[in-house]
Amino acid sequence: MTWPQSFLAFLKAQLALLLLRVLTAGPIPRHVAFEMDGNRRFARRTGRRAVEGHSDGFHTLKQVLEICMRLGIRCVTVYAFAIENFNRPPEEVDALMKLGEERLVEIAQNGALLSQHGIRLNVLGQRELLPSHVQAAIEKAEGMTRQNTRSILNVCAPYASRHEITLAVQSVVQQALDKEKVDSSSITEQSIDENLMTTLGGSPPLDIFVRTSGVKRLSGFLQWQCCENTQIHMVDTYWPDFGLRDFVPIILDYQQKMWARSKV
Amino acid sequence: MVAYLFLRLLHILYASLVFLKTSLQSRRYSPPQPVTAYRSKVPKHLAIVLVSNDTVHSKHTEELYLECLARVFTWCRALGIEQLTAYDAEGILLKHSDTIRERLAHHIELPTDESETELEYPLTPPLSESSESRSHSPDFGELPVELNVTTMRSLKKGVLHHKPREVAVRRRVHNKQSPCSPLTLHIISRSASKPAIASAARCLLDEALYRRQNSDDPAHAKAYQLSTSDLNSMLEGRSGGLPSPDFMIVHHVYPQAPQPPLELHGFPPWQITLTEIHRTIIRDVAPPNHSDASSKSLLISEQAFCRALDEYAGAQFRLGR
């Protein structure tokens, strides 16, 4: 990079930091979720393989996580892999597994992103469906960040919302059966909520839900958590392109909602 | 403090940009295709979510909701959409389900004297009374659980009179849908949402307790297991349940400009896995001569409905692949 280019890059970075500082003067969401869609289409646009799109997507995840931490968003949930994604071509699934295995441990290392910001990693989903070496890597990464208390990163893989709700219902029924005196009135929507994987990992209620690549469905992500009091943004940008340009308006919308609510 | 002032400035800048963008978009406004135009894909099950301001809760709102539902109902019948779910969080529609039944019976055209149209509530299956009828694995679709879904079906008896219509409804699919095909209407409120899942859970507890008490070895009961498909049968696949809509239209009867982000207002979470979601835009419901759209209440217009259908027809499904 030439001298003027690197200076401009530096200026741009400083302006971004300033912008984030200004935003923190207003209400900040507690919990934001990202459905990181569009990696493959992003790659195809430039004639590359889908796998490279996922790699770019991971890079964007790190950047967005950095932005969230600077804003003071204490909990971020991302949809990394759906149970249905096992239907994808085996090479792609293998590549995704490899990506997850390597990168999760990478960011959980001492001095890396998660420890820098005190982020605890929770991997949510039907872990038993993953290859055993991936499960081992996940346990290792979670172990490395277990003592972090400042923020939470939930990585949903492999996840399906209905499965999460079913498990929560199963848990509340089991808990009621285990009591000395079985009382069905102890089963309420609150008790089901408390048994969702996100809540069990310490996540607060979901304030903002973002899906990229222009798709206008939830596709099995956080259905219980986002169906009430959550602002939903379906943005056209592909995930690897997602950044401040898309995220700042989302935060501004949230702040307007909070300010309007405090007036009532 | 300084940062706060800058933030307020940023908000003003943002609001101005949004205003500019919306004005530019309305210049380039293109109306959607008409209701009966050909569309490659039409939802089999449509959900309409009606939203009003939290504080305004008047007779006027009730009238707006009823009129919106009547309109959507008529368009759905014209398009051969088989199921319609109408949701509002507060339960205004549910409260007026009798009125709805009467009004919709009037709204439907009667082409000839011989054909009869009526709305009826489907029969609720009898609760299984005898204990011997319980098998080891219960039929989850038959467990007695109150899911708070009011269902009505419009029927068409007799011969349908074929009047030449201006535009015919044509679709790629082979089934020939008549302009006034039967339509199942589900009316729900928040009580059919998370509370219904809790209700299902309580029912499952009763079932599990019964089985444990009647099992060969009650002292060493196995861990309780529930599968997604069993819970699905309870919530969706039964008389009294609510199937998943393909498409959802969210409509605010008191729209604000600029429009705040989309929310789902407590719509049942189980059923929205693959539902395509759309919100009506102000431009479609408020024609340009309305100078102060925010103070006016707005019914869902045919244009808004058509734009929603156009969007649905253009949506792509990859199903995980």
UniProtKB/TrEMBL annotation, chain A:
Signal peptide from the UniProt entry: 1-25
Enzyme class: transferase
Keywords per UniProt: Magnesium, Signal, Transferase
EC number: 2.5.1.-
InterPro entries documented for this protein: UPP_synth-like, UPP_synth-like_sf
A Gene Ontology biological process term: polyprenol biosynthetic process
KW Metal-binding (keyword) present: no
GO-annotated cellular components: dehydrodolichyl diphosphate synthase complex; endoplasmic reticulum; lipid droplet; membrane
One Pfam short name: Prenyltransf
Keyword check for Iron: no
Domain of life (superkingdom): Eukaryota
GO terms assigned for molecular function: ditrans,polycis-polyprenyl diphosphate synthase [(2E,6E)-farnesyl diphosphate specific] activity
Family that this chain belongs to: Belongs to the UPP synthase family.
Stated name of the protein: Alkyl transferase
Protein source organism: Rhizopogon vesiculosus
TrEMBL record, chain B:
GO annotation, cellular component aspect: dehydrodolichyl diphosphate synthase complex; endoplasmic reticulum membrane
Superkingdom assignment: Eukaryota
Bias (Low complexity): 120-130
Subcellular location: Endoplasmic reticulum membrane
Endpoints of the signal sequence: 1-15
Catalytic activity: n isopentenyl diphosphate + (2E,6E)-farnesyl diphosphate = a di-trans,poly-cis-polyprenyl diphosphate + n diphosphate
GO molecular function, a single term: ditrans,polycis-polyprenyl diphosphate synthase [(2E,6E)-farnesyl diphosphate specific] activity
Annotated stretches, region: Disordered: 109-142
InterPro entries given in the database record: Nus1/NgBR, UPP_synth-like_sf
Pathway this chain belongs to: Protein modification; protein glycosylation
UniProt entry tagged with the keyword Magnesium: yes
Cofactor: Mg(2+)
EC number(s) on file: 2.5.1.87
Keywords: Endoplasmic reticulum, Magnesium, Membrane, Signal, Transferase, Transmembrane, Transmembrane helix
Record-linked PANTHER family: DEHYDRODOLICHYL DIPHOSPHATE SYNTHASE COMPLEX SUBUNIT NUS1
UniProt record similarity statement: Belongs to the UPP synthase family.
Protein name in UniProt: ditrans,polycis-polyprenyl diphosphate synthase [(2E,6E)-farnesyldiphosphate specific]
Organism: Rhizopogon vesiculosus
